[in-house]
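Class prep. Protein, please:
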Amino acid sequence: MEWETLKAQCLACHNCGLCETRTNVVFGQGAEDAEVLFVGEGPGQSEDEQGLPFVGRSGQLLDKYLFAIDLDRKKNCYIANIVKCRPPQNRDPLPAESEACMPWLREQFRLLKPKIVVCLGRVAAQRMIRADFSVVREHGEFYNKNGILFMATYHPAALLRQPRSKPDAFADFLALREKIQEVCEHTY
């Protein structure tokens, strides 16, 4: 399956109840040959309205961190979510909702073949790295899973609520830049 076919099928998805309350499916955004994939938990209100990931206040913060390490969502990285539709009141996605959406993320993963996956927040990290993952204790550490490096950092929305964690998150992005220089071939 190629990008356009995958996106068209995803935009028509009715695999779980989240389709009933969405405005837009938030498929993902970025370079289709990106070596670095960022994964959040799911769209918020701004994302649901615009159909793009991380476009609200937390997305603006994420863009600042990306810019600081020479990444750009339109040029050399890709941003997606575990679930493609907004959970009501921005609650965590239910296990059944995450499970219904994972085939879309797996196909994005298959097409991208990323070298590094950055989980943005607890929900993504617990789904993609390990069920008992603690972002507070393990942020910024890299884990090799089948030849792909996984790392988690604070979700940008959490940083807006708890600004004292911003220096730790920035350090995670600096470590990411070093890792990109080490393992990626065409990101920079």
About this structure: Helices lie at 3-11, 45-50, 57-68, 95-112, 122-128, 135-138, 156-161, 166-183. Residues 34 and 186 are 9 Å apart (CA to CA).
